[in-house]
Amino acid sequence: MAGEDLFAYLTRVRGGFDEALYRRVVGAASAFKEGDAVLGLAAPDDATRATARGLLAATRVGELQARPLFEDRLYAALLADLDAGVCERIAGWTLGALKEFLLTAEEAAIHAILPGLASDVIACVVKLMSDAELTALGARVYHPLPGRTLGARGYLSARLQPNSPTDDPEDIRWQVFDGWSYAVGDLLLGTNPVSSDPDSVAVVEATLHEIRTSFGVEDLLPHCVLAHVDVQAEVEARAPGSTGIWFQSLAGSDAANATFGVSLGSMLRRASERGGKYGMYFETGQGADCTNGHAAGVDMVVHEARKYGFCRLLTRAVAAAQIAAGRAPAPWVHVNDVAGFIGPEVFRRREQLIRCCLEDIAMGKLHGLTIGLDVCSTLHMDVDLDDLELCLDAVAAAGPAYLMALPTRNDPMLGYLTTGFHDHLRLRARTGLRVDEAMWGFFRDVLEVVDAEGQPTWRFGQPLQVFLRYQRARGDLREEAEILAEGRERMAAVQARGVPLVVGSGAQPWLLPGAEEATLRRDYADAKRCLWAEWDDAFLARLPGRWCCARRRGIARITSGIRRGASGCRRRRWWSWMCCAGSMPGRTSCSWSCRTGSVRWR
What we know:
46% of the residues lie in helices and 11% in strands. The chain has helices spanning 6-14, 19-28, 34-38, 46-57, 61-66, 73-80, 84-90, 95-104, 107-113, 119-127, 131-138, 169-181, 198-215, 229-238, 254-259, 264-271, 288-291, 300-324, 350-366, 385-396, 421-431, 437-446, 463-473, 480-496, 514-531, 537-541; strands spanning 157-160, 188-191, 223-225, 246-249, 278-284, 332-339, 371-375, 402-405, 547-557, 571-581, 590-593, 598-601. The protein has 26 helices and twelve strands. With 602 residues, the chain is an alpha/beta fold. The strands form three sheets. The chain has a four-stranded parallel sheet. A four-stranded parallel sheet has the order 4-5-6-7. It has a four-stranded antiparallel sheet with strand order 9-10-11-12, with no helix packed on it. A hairpin with a 4-residue loop joins strand 11 (590-593) and strand 12 (598-601).
């Protein structure tokens, strides 16, 4: 019925409030994603989606806030954190009116209502927006980090992600040198560790910390090892001052957070320990809750919004910790939306990846957060290298604070695709976006990879030159030629371990050199073939060593891994193998399945 709101609709068709139908209507208002389809929440067609959006648009903010889609301790804390005065002011607005306000009001007016926007309200209003409207909203609202241009209008920063397949300090160190040689890596040096053992994490922390202190950039950017927050706290307790900003992945419910080994209480306690300059770094991503079995019958956008509500709550806790420590409340807190890492069971194609990124940028900014993106894809998604480039172009227009940064898009440890150093150069050239001013001065005046006019110098793209500066900063007085010779040997050793390092550029500064581009595309194509390959008897006969294998045939979903028998899932035949290899020292057996494309040794 024309003008009918969601709750009037429920009363008309169910005779009163119906929680299950309520959740289905809210879910149906979302743009299509595979994860919502598996949950039975995606609209079957565009007409149904439009109807659901119409019902939401006519619903008042206060009524929606009074009817939670699901309740737990985290949700109660998020509600208690809201500004009561702002809530009262906007309670009578419809979601349609709120959408119009967000797309037309001045930025200062939008900032004024953010403390009273509940996470579920934010989730529902972004469902009403087209991709173009989400882009426009993202480009209008900014939350830079305190005292810096990181996250400000006109800037695009980078988390330099120097991951190593073995947590080797040299792998990590040289990827930092490589990124900085391109003037990339102004927000954070952030490594995903292979091992979460505190001793191993401490070595990686010390490596990153030593780079920062050697170059004297401790006050310009932090470092981070993305282990569990409790492990980071243990390392800090052992060696005070050795850790930088603290990291933790967050979910949108008590149950899902428990799978990450955290809770509302434990995270508030950790936030209360962050009274120094650098606070906390969070990662989220649509689909984590449902793939962990904790969807609670609610769609992925709502869960993602509640994660940002959790981030907002913890940001306030960091500010309180700074006040308690005698500092001005200026919480250095940011969140990274890892969009695409889970794979096709959440969403499969580039259009869905773009939509997810735009939704999450908007929701993060409406929660008052400095939000960046890991625009990534796994090999089993229908997103290739060219698609990923188009995704980056689309989301850059929405004003994310930062993106990831790797030498060639191919992460040597996580085995997924994300933003390369040269993508940052291309986006800067195309859009005019800039690097944080303080770190740009470091790139210009200390590393001298760019000149006073911002143009590349002969040192640009030359990690050996950054290594030379590093050695000089550490007091190395040897002849330059001797230091560079050592650097070449060390670079070669890193590359021999399969960690890509890039030197120079193609025909333009933002193009990978031809050989590296060809290698990246060859390896990508080979990996895609390997992922879906089936091991047959002829292949097994060619394997070296002494093997005995048992073959088991079955059926596996490739679009959803949430629960067996879910509707809307494509299926394919697969073979799995149980193997034992007498020729592998210290390894007794392995299992392989083309469902995952991986070998697990036992």
